Amino acid sequence: MSSRVVITGMGVAAPNAVGLLNFEQALRNGESGIRFFPELKQLNFTCQIGGKPQIPEDLLKKYFTPLQLKGLNSSGIIYGVISGTDAWQDAGLEIDENAPADWDSGIIFGTGILGTDKFREAIQLIDQGKTRRLGSTSVIQTMASGISAYLGGILGCGNQVTTNSSACTTGTEALLMGFERIRSGQAERMLVGSCGDHGPYVWGGFDAMRILPGKYNEKPEEASRPLSASATGFVPGSGAGALLLEDLDSAVGRGAKIYAEVLGGEINSGGQRGDGSMTAASNEAVERCITRALKNSGISAGEIDVINGHLTATNRDSTEILNWTRALGRRGNEFPFINSLKGMTGHCLSASGSIECVASVLQMEKGFLFPNINCEEVHPEIQELISEDRIPKKKIDTEINILAKASFGFGDVNAVAIFKKYTP
PANTHER family from the entry (predicted)? Predict the structure, then answer.
């Protein structure tokens, strides 16, 4: 096997678009998928908006049998199956339920909280003494590995099939875990990604923490403002993203399309020591994660063209930029271009890393930078660190050779992945 790992397929179910072509168009146009939810108003949420993929009934029937749809009440599984199946087929791989297990292909598909609505439904039935009415899928819809189990059965993967969970770092971590499995020779292909449920039972805790914006309920598309001086908190979102990673020899041997190469990356934790905590990343850990990602990928700081940041539209945005400048030793107009998808999708929590990895690779493959919407006025602390023209306000057509994607999660956990434009 080659020591090189490439991306041969992608799929996405994001708040602003479902499907790869639709998603690319939404990125180019800077389209927001953040909407007002009357249910949140009825429940007295301060923040009554969020990001939720729009999945019509006829689309559901393309991915699930009538039997599978019966009693299906887990939005995360729905988003994950759509994006994962799309990535598999986008890679030119077949789905044949009569074929034997594919021992060379595996799945690492993460989540944070799965099946919250199914849990609520189950709790109500159990409390009413109606346990027998739970249905045969209540367990698989509420276990964390339900998403990888669904995909494993649909695709017939016989290699490692598992689920990871590391808060907002989940998707990027899954990608790096799959990368390492291929690099170690234990698999030829790994479907990697992450998903997250939507709704009040997922978003309520964040509303209680008062870290969501409450003054944009009547203008939801303006609410998520990464890097901006007027940012007042992150908008919660949901969805899923998926990427098919493959050993280069395997991809070339079957004539697969190659989107980009994964050079490597780093996963670490700050241990909640020093300035790190359960909810805030250790600055030292973030800097170490970035520098180790570069070392592991065999590149220098000066080679990075673009950063797709974590950048949630909170007061941590300026701290994140500071950490990047320290780790890269680049400031002002020497700093790479940087953008955040969360202005368009909100913060999709456990799904954010994978959706943003898909967006990052699309930028690289298609040669453009999507805009940082709602960032009319850059935060003054960020202006002191980097030139404002490093933060695109409109789509820019440009060649991208190397892109760094970062995710930082609750629990003081970090992941940075390095993508490179593919050259034979």
Answer: 3-OXOACYL-[ACYL-CARRIER-PROTEIN] SYNTHASE 1, POLYKETIDE SYNTHASE-RELATED
Are residues 89 and 218 both part of a single domain?
A: yes
CA distance to 8, 15, 117, 141, 277, per residue, from 339 (Å): 24, 18, 33, 34, 25
Instruction: Report DSSP letters for 299-342, one per residue.
Output: --GGG--EEE----SSTTHHHHHHHHHHHHT--BTTSPEEE-TH
pLDDT digits (tens, 9 = 90+) for 400-423: 999 999 999 999 999 999 999 999
Rounded-to-integer distance, Cα 236 and Cα 241, Å: 16
| pTM (global) more than 0.90 | yes
Handedness of CA 349, 112, 360, 271 (dihedral sign): positive
Instruction: Tell me whether strands 402-409 and 396-397 are parallel, antiparallel or unpaired.
Output: unpaired
Structural domains in the chain (count): 2
Q: Is 340 exposed, middle or buried (0-12, 13-18, 19+ CB in 10 A)?
A: buried
Residue 307 belongs to domain spanning: 265-420
The C-alpha atoms of residue 275 and residue 267 are separated, in whole angstroms, by 18
**Residues 406, 399, 337, 293, CA torsion sign:** positive
- CA separation (Å) from 260 to 34, 244, 251, 326, 368? 29, 11, 12, 27, 14
Do both 207 and 286 map to the same domain? no
Q: pLDDT tens digit string along 86-101?
A: 999 999 999 999 999 9
Instruction: Tell me how crowded residue 3 is: count the other CB atoms within 10 A of its CB.
Output: 10
